[in-house]
What does this fold into?
Amino acid sequence: SVFYKINGINVLEKELAEKLAIKKVIVGSVGIQDEQVSLNEIGYEAAKYLSTLIEEKMIIGLTGGSSIEKVINGYKSDWVHFENQDIMVVPARGGLGNKNEYQANTLAERLANKLGAKYQMLYTQDNLSQASIEELKNEPNIKRILENITKLDVLLFGIGQASVMANRRVLEQEEIDNILGKGAVAESFGYYFNKDGEIVHEISTIGIDLDIFKKLKHVIAVAGGVEKTEAIIAISKLNPNLVLVTDELTAKKIQEVL
Ligand code: F6P
It folds into this structure.
């Protein structure tokens, strides 16, 4: 019955949160269907959870990617319950990836529109030299966004498999081999991590630093698909406040391997 199914999911969520040593796990409740359906579902679940956190004066950061796009799709404008909408939405990092990806800038604008909030955009490229990074950081426009990024109240982010992301970003084969050779299994907000959640490579761009990420109180990871199992486990080691939103099949797979 529906009751037992929902109850079973509750148990799974609690057990998994304990095993991963994170704050909360939310498992999409449609059961095992095709990947697209379950991605939409976890997007909706993540959006609902996000809506419970949002308060006036908050700064919400997000990354790009198809999973976060589903969250924005799932967010219903009529969930907005605050009055003065003094809320800011910002991309967490500039210039990750290429135009084939769902860009954080676009998603920030879309979420802000649904919330009636303000937004800022961060236009930079990948693979900047250290000198250009330092220079950019002093540009007044960029400085203002970076200030907001260091004060994030909530971060909504996607998790990718290192190999998939390295290829999606069309890196040189040598660089891909180098990153994977260092044991990278996961990629999030511009950092590649090994299975223990240690950084093995960082994209040179500006935006959220790992130190800031590690101290955030509200961090929501949205990632589904069994192929992301190892990546999800790695990212779960970064911040015990993590809230993971995933699908049932992946949740069960994580439980199995842990
Ligand atoms: O490129 C932005 C990003 O959030 C990456 O940091 C992450 O690895 C990836 O997108 C996840 O993308 P998707 O949700 O499409 O798998």
